[in-house]
């Protein structure tokens, strides 16, 4: 699965091979499952949307 020239939005679990290029938005957790991969090409702009979270400090 390849991100297109328009901004692509990702959140969830992926078992496929992902290639990100151009403008990409992460609107939630992105998990790469066994058998999958994530390649981020040079010059890719990744925007991460802040999450409210659980308000629990994991430390």
Describe this structure in a few short sentences.
The chain has 59 residues and is mostly beta strands.
Distance between the termini: 35 Å
Strand tally is 5
- How would you spell out the order of helices and strands? EEEEE
Could you name the ranges where pLDDT drops below 50 across 5 or more consecutive residues? none
Helix content: under 10%
Average pLDDT rating? 85
Radius of gyration, rounded?
13 Å
Structural class: mainly beta
The rough form would be described as flat
Share in β-strands = over 45%
| Biggest β-sheet description | 3 strands, parallel
Specify the number of helices: 0
Q: In order across it, which strands form the biggest sheet?
A: 1-3-5
Question: Strands, helices and their partners?
Answer:
Elements: E1 8-14, E2 17-20, E3 23-32, E4 37-40, E5 45-48
How would you portray this structure in words?
- The chain has a domain at 8-48.
- By secondary structure, it is mostly beta strands.
- Helix content is 0%, strand content 49%.
- 5% of the residues are buried.
- The chain starts with 7 loop residues before the first strand and ends in an 11-residue tail after the last strand.
- It has no helices and five strands.
- The strands form two sheets. Strands 1-3-5 form a three-stranded parallel beta sheet, with no helix packed on it. A two-stranded parallel ribbon has the order 2-4.
- It has strands at residues 8-14, 17-20, 23-32, 37-40, 45-48.
């Amino acid at each position: 699965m390849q991100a297109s020239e328009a901004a692509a939005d990702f959140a969830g679990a992926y078992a496929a091979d992902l290639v990100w290029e151009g403008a990409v938005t992460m609107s939630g957790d992105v998990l790469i499952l066994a058998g999958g991969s994530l390649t981020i090409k040079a010059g890719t702009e990744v925007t991460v949307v802040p999450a409210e979270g659980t308000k629990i400090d994991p430390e």
